[in-house]
Each structure stands twice: as structure tokens, then as C-alpha cells.
Design brief:
single chain; mainly alpha; Butyryl-CoA Dehydrogenase, subunit A, domain 3; two-stranded antiparallel ribbon; 7 helices; 2 strands; MOB_kinase_act_sf
Amino acid sequence: AMALCLKQVFNKDKTFRPRKKFEPGTQRFELYKKAQASLKSGLDLKAVVQLPPGESINDWIAVHVVDFFNRINLIYGTMSEYCTEKSCPIMSGGLKYEYRWQDDNKYKKPTKLSAPKYMCMLMDWIEMLINNEDIFPTRIGVPFPKQFQQVCTKILTRLFRVFVHVYIHHFDSIINMGAEAHVNTCYKHFYYFIREFSLIDHRELEPLVRMPQGQGG
């Protein structure tokens, strides 16, 4: 019943935009399949995130960044009707944490935005990066740029803020939609991945520090 219910929730497919896909036949597609298979096998998530022997760490990180982007985009898409200019005029995680938006284009200084506006800017920004061949090269033999892991840290740090906002401000909606188990699993997977490769400054994790396992387990 749970699976069916989740399927209904996530089949609305209210993602903001077309999802980035891996091209079949590429090494990264094979890695993606490997990662998905071990995820479905019910292995401990701490084991699932470990780099498979002989694989390149940057490929492994690239596959996960894209996959987390797709999945968190979907989770937020299903929440978005509850996250409005009125309900969430500030992009925050409780009373102590406020996230301001900054990029190299329109927002050169950290700027207060509503949560939905922040999310929109964030998803557009990540999509632009993962579709940029100079940063996420897809052609065989084209190396990753030197700053690749730094870029991924920035992406993952900002994606983590989506979890912070959703858990702290919209957890009732998650429960009402029957999506709690799905969101918790995705959060745990994400958390173990960033810890395994030290991809986020631990200070960023503080808003959810009491729930490394996800709420309620």
C-alpha cells in the first residue's frame, strides 16, 4: 500500500523542469545503474554511498549530484503548493537560520528571497551547472575541471537547505501526503553521501543536527 501511495504522490511529477538524464552506454550511466541497484538491494545506506572499487571519485560524485538534484527537485515539487510567498516569505530553516540568495548574475550580494523564489533560483542555477559540459563533462575522455568538487560542494550545500526548509516548515504536509518514508530515505542517503566524502561544511548541517537518521528513525 505504501508503494502505491507514494507512486500517486510522486507521479504528479510536478518537477520544475525536465530532469537531467544519463546517456545509456556511457560509463556514468553504468555507474548510475550500479548505484540504483545497490540502493534497491536494501543494503545499509552507509555502505551504498561508498565508492565502488576501481571507479573514479569524480564520476561517482557527478552521478550522485545529478540524481540528488532530480530527487530533491521532485520532493520539493510535490510540496510546492504548500510553500508559497504567503506561507514562506523568507527562505529559512526555523527561527535561527535564514538563507539568502547570491549568484553571479542578478544577485551579486546575498539577497532575502521568499522560499519559493529561492527554490526556483536554486533549481535553475543547478540545472545550468549540470548541463554545462565544461563543469560536468559527459564525453568519454574529457576530464573534470579542477574546481569540480568545489562546485559540487556548493550545489550540495544549497540542496541540503531544501531539506532543512521542507523538514522544519512543511513536515506536516509530508506526513499528510504519505511521503514521510520516501523523504526520510532520500535525506538519509544524501546525508551519508555528503559525510562519506566530506562535501559539506559541518556547520551547514546544524539545523538538522538532531536528525542524522531522518525524522522518526
